[in-house]
Amino acid sequence: MLSLLTSLPGGWKRIKGYHRLNPGQTEDQGICMELPNHNITIRELQEYIKSKDYKPGLEHGYFLKLVEEIGELAEVIGKGKRLGDDSDIKGTIEEELYDVLYYVLALANLYNVDLEKSCLLKEEINNNRTDH
Questions:
Q1: How many CB atoms lie within 10 A of CB 58?
Q2: Is 45 exposed, middle or buried (0-12, 13-18, 19+ CB in 10 A)?
Q3: What is the pLDDT of residues 48-83, one digit of tens each?
Q4: pLDDT confidence band for 38 (50 / 70 / 90)
Q5: For the chain, which terminal residue's Cβ has fewer other Cβ atoms within 10 angstroms, N or C?
């Protein structure tokens, strides 16, 4: 389940009417935690996703969902549909990028990976490479 979020002046806001819920869950049950009202860190987003969607033992299913979302991202990139002034994110590159990020972070949670720390460590390696 996820609540789609968008960065607006003053912080992150939930876009109404767009929730992914687990089977049998109502929309009210799908809202577990609010994101902070400031620029969000990777760690905060990862914790937010974990509070809503954490199912150890289903790593393979989450990976398949990630692959599916990457396919949907490829489709919308091909169409070139972007988020416009009307804030209708459905079917846009922005929506699918968030969905990909969501499942990357959900997988990181299942494998107990601090993705923010991993980013910093990997970027240090990248910056020390001589072939860039």
A1: 13
A2: buried
A3: 999 999 999 999 999 999 999 999 999 999 999 999
A4: confident
A5: C
